[in-house]
Amino acid sequence: MTYSTPLRETDRAFTQLRWATILFAVALITHGADHLRRGMNTVSSTVMTLGTIQMILALATIVLVFLGHRAAPLAAIVIGFVSAAGFILVHLFPDWFGPLSDSFINPPESAKVNGFSWFAALFEIAADVIIGVAGLRAYRTQAGTRS
Q1: Does residue 9 form part of some domain?
Q2: For residue 127, is it within any domain?
Q3: How far, in Å, CA of 32 to CA of 12, rounded?
Q4: Which pLDDT tens digit goes with each residue over 96-121?
Q5: For 51, which of 15, 39, 78, 127 is 20 to 30 Å away at the CA?
Q6: Reduced to 3 states, what is the DSSP secondary structure of residue 124?
Q7: 60 belongs to a structural domain
Q8: Which domain holds residue 60?
Q9: What's the pLDDT tens digit per position in 91-102?
Q10: How many domains does the chain have?
Q11: Integer Cα distance of 4 and 19 in angstroms
């Protein structure tokens, strides 16, 4: 796969990807704020490591989108859908995954999960799917403009 065509500011799909990226960034900050509120010691080192990797890749995706880089749509697709799946597994499944879990289903009181935690996680998941879909649209538009 080659990415010979950069995104153009005039493309509708590019504009949608930028707006989706803004929403994604706000959701990322909201979810991060909840983890700070709850305390970083409420999650396992595995979840902390995976979250840090996700944050780095998310920030890289945001930068690629706002630079109009030709790899931005693919980055949005990957970070969006992989993050959505990851957050669903980590937060919305019961504590079946041991160190891969920060379950909001019957959490211990020490996890400090509240309504804001649920909002932040669901907002993040929705924003992940939205940026993934916007990335798909931009990728298809970009592929259609290749020479």
Answers
A1: no
A2: yes
A3: 30
A4: 777 888 888 988 888 999 999 999 99
A5: 15
A6: helix
A7: yes
A8: 45-144
A9: 998 877 778 888
A10: 1
A11: 23
